[in-house]
Design brief:
This protein is mainly beta. The chain folds into 2 domains: 365 residues; 79 residues, Immunoglobulins (Immunoglobulin-like). Helix content is 8%, strand content 39%. The protein contains 5 helices and 37 strands. A hairpin with a 5-residue loop joins strand 33 and strand 34.
Length: 504
């Protein structure tokens, strides 16, 4: 009881700091809540550092009064959270107590990072969603290794405010961002527009969960060419039947007059491990407007059409890049899907036949016997999932990496994760050593069966979680605050618990 009391006092004693204009070089600390008032810029030569566990909220406002955090070319954002203390971006009215409905969208802007990497736009461009008279919103250059900072263990919620008709801000916009930038363990929840959009650039994004967005989950264009993308998970809004494609993949989305003469660089990113849970219709991925790309190890569920490749643009469209080897697909499985791979065009008579043969040779197929659950629902208030999903599979992105730190896991979306362990009855006490611990604790297990576990703080917040099939569980506790923690674990049949004391 004492620990809970101290945490409540800490939360009540937090300062609320309003930020507008330029951040300068500074650090935002976890004992404060920061309110973005309008467009807040990290300008060239400035570095904004955000501590793990910090809460940032966008003030209400639309159009030119919309709130957003924008990292300009030459600026850096160092938002390096942890699984135990993720950095959360949400709207000012969110009390973060679980009362806001999962599908609340368009309450503030989002995060926009602008870099100096190459695009096929034909020169520097102005990012969409920001008025054209703002000279801090330019992106694109000639440095593909450009470094705009770190975004790690960051949850971005309820954004995408409308600036005008059909003009919204994406949850996370990466425009001309270079490969020196780290984008890892990112969640975008209920954005009104796209979840994550790449405008050219060479940055890679790993462990990215996009859920319940109003438009596409992932979107690339303008010659995006990041080569290290892994573990992308898209979950569309099934209860609300909202959301377009899991991935809308363009080579270029501009007028032809704005594209570099040779349309270089081509859009040829690599994504390994991509899961899409659709709304029951529509497409998993659409390649169009001259996009290439290389996608492998996919799981696309509850979509009408798994992948479509267009052949409509001249001189080159996505199908032409497929023929040239600049668009490749392999080991992609469909579940609850009518058509795995489809040709859309009139340039060749046997386009469908060519793609059918390619699918058969490269493991692109519809499977009916997968042990997954791709259907979910929420309670009437939209606060908790009542029928969770389970897409933990050898195919696609998996879901274990999203447990313990995301909005989706807090709302019980995943069936075999932290919330499943919370609900398990305790039947056996596990010994842990050393206990008290400092840097790590080891817990012997009595079975080699797959065990799902979660370490919970005294306030009830998950701080570590995962699965193992080893006979002993070793948990890194070095960066955890001193205190009392509860370990809960289950193999589905047996249930265990242990109390662990952490000392500095």
């Amino acid at each position: 009881m004492t620990a809970c009391f101290l945490i409540s006092v800490s939360l009540l004693s937090q300062n609320t700091i309003q930020v507008s204009g330029s951040t300068g070089t500074t650090t935002w600390t976890s004992n404060n809540t920061y309110i973005l008032s309008g467009y807040v810029f990290v300008e060239s030569g400035q570095t904004l550092t955000i501590e793990p566990g910090t809460i940032v909220k966008g003030a209400p406002g639309s159009g030119v009064d919309a709130s957003a955090l924008i990292v300009s070319k030459g600026g850096q954002l160092m938002a390096d959270g942890t699984a135990a203390a993720p950095i959360i971006f949400t709207f000012e009215g969110d009390p973060l107590d679980g009362s806001v409905a999962y599908d609340t969208r368009g309450q503030w802007g989002g995060i926009i990072i602008l870099g100096n990497a190459t695009t096929n736009f034909g020169g520097p461009a102005q990012i969409e969603g920001i008025p054209t008279d703002n000279n801090l919103a330019e992106y694109g250059g000639d440095n593909d290794s450009d470094n705009s900072g770190v975004l790690r263990y960051v949850s971005i919620r309820h954004g995408g405010i409308e600036l005008g008709a059909a003009n919204e801000i994406n949850g996370l916009t990466l425009a001309g961002v270079g490969s020196g930038t780290t984008i890892d363990h990112i969640e975008v929840v209920s954005n009104l527009d796209d979840g994550v959009e790449f405008f050219g650039g060479a940055v890679s994004a790993t462990h990215v969960l996009v859920a319940f967005c109003g438009d596409d989950s992932f979107d690339w264009d303008q010659g995006y060419h990041g080569q290290g993308n892994t573990h992308w998970l898209a979950v569309q809004d099934q209860p609300g039947l909202s959301g377009d494609r899991g991935g809308e993949l363009d080579g270029d989305d501009s007028d032809d007059g704005n594209v570099s003469a040779d349309e270089m660089p081509l859009a040829t990113p690599t994504v390994t491990g991509w899961t899409i849970v659709g709304v029951g219709g529509g497409q998993g991925l659409l390649f169009r407007n001259g996009s290439g790309g290389h996608v492998s190890n996919g799981l696309f569920a509850n979509v009408e059409e798994g992948i479509e490749i267009e052949d409509k643009e001249s001189p080159l469209d996505a199908f032409d890049h497929f023929l040239a080897g600049d668009l490749t697909l392999s080991n992609i499985k469909m579940f609850n899907c009518a058509d795995a791979l489809d040709y859309d065009g009139t340039e060749v008579e046997d386009g469908d036949a060519q793609l059918d043969a390619y699918a058969a040779d490269n493991g692109i197929e519809i499977l009916s016997g997968l042990d997954i659950d791709d259907q979910f629902s929420f309670d009437a208030a939209g606060q908790q999932a009542t029928n969770p999903i389970n897409v933990d599979s050898e195919f696609g992105a998996g879901q274990d990496w999203a447990l313990g730190w995301t909005f989706c896991d807090e709302r019980a979306l995943f069936g075999d994760g932290v919330n499943h362990v919370f609900a398990a009855p305790e039947s056996e006490h596990l010994l842990a050593y050393p206990n008290p611990c400092t840097d790590a604790v080891t817990v012997p297990l009595s079975t080699p069966a797959k065990t799902t576990w979660v370490l919970v703080s005294a306030s009830g917040r998950p701080v570590r979680s995962g699965t193992t099939q080893e006979m002993a569980l070793r948990i890194d506790t070095a960066d955890l605050p001193a205190g009392v923690y509860s370990l809960r674990a289950t193999d589905g049949m047996n249930h265990w618990s242990s109390m662990i004391i952490k000392r500095n």
